[in-house]
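Standup, Tuesday
Yesterday: got the pipeline producing structure tokens again.
Today: sanity-check two examples.
Blockers: none.

Example 1:
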Amino acid sequence: MASRRRDESGSIGAALGWAALIAGLLALLTIVAALAFSVTVKGQSMEPTVREGDRLLVKFWDRGTIKRFDLVEARVGVAKTPVVKRVIGLPGDTVSIRFDRGAPVVAVTPAGSETAQYVVNPTWEGQIGDRVAPCCEDDGTAGTQFHEVVVPDGKYWLLGDNWGSSDDSRTYGFVPGADIGGHLNLRLRPLGSFGSIENPATLADQP
């Protein structure tokens, strides 16, 4: 009888040990996968929303459902440089930027609406840099004067929240959907800031 109890205790202990090992391996695989499918923010172009060194999870599995104001990882320019930006213009939208006392007024007329023009709110405060040219040229880049332009089918118009220090669609033009890797709505690092990334952007009526 005592021998049977020892055998049962040993079996339970072994099962618990295997369960702990499997749980540990799954946790390790989760961490490795999260790091593998993540991007580290470089530069100041998305302050104050995310900052240099923040590590963000790339939700590549829902890249086909890009919405206005999503944070995304995109590859831009001839070198396909990875960047973190915010989606402002969707395919078919009409977009433009004018400046009011040095601050940008980013205007959007959603696709299918001929007259309902809105401005992107908020205009983030405390911006740095000198990216203050009006927009846009036909390819979505900044130009020498205010001009409205329509976002082509299959492409997106991306901006950095820190508009004064951001190389974005004003530099690289419209970004094909195929060059957008996925959504970025979860901060992995630093651990003290782990969690969902707030999205304060909205469309507001023209002042």
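Example 2:
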Amino acid sequence: MFNDIGPLELVTLIVLAVLVFGPDKLPKLIQDVTRTIRKIREFSESAKEDIRQELGPEFKDFEFEDLNPKTFIRKQLDNDELGLKEIRNGFDLKKEMAEVTDAVHSREAESTPSAGSSGSSGGTIDMTKKPETPRDERPPYDADAT
């Protein structure tokens, strides 16, 4: 629960608690807090047991931590009943991006020598060029926008 609190921070919190609540009230406050935490844990455990009993015997190994999406996916990847590792390993994003980049660069190399062509030589389209628009045609005018 307090994994990221260092010793210096812990000492600072203790000194601050003594200053705020005083040395007389601090032990009673600690007892009240621990009692409240115990009651919350007991309530939580009893609620979990009630839910497990209501679900029935087929869910007796059900863990509430599995409701966390990260835990669920990690558990399913380890189980690998669905073949998710094959899917994940079969999809290499870096490789796919490199192939797309190579394809784009090769198309640019093909279209550069034929600068006078319309860009559709060999059935490929140069996506880096802007589409040609007739110069006589004006863009639509919206009087409300001005």
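Quick observation on example 2: The helical segments are 7-55, 69-79, 84-90, 93-111. Confidence is low (pLDDT under 50) at residues 115-121.
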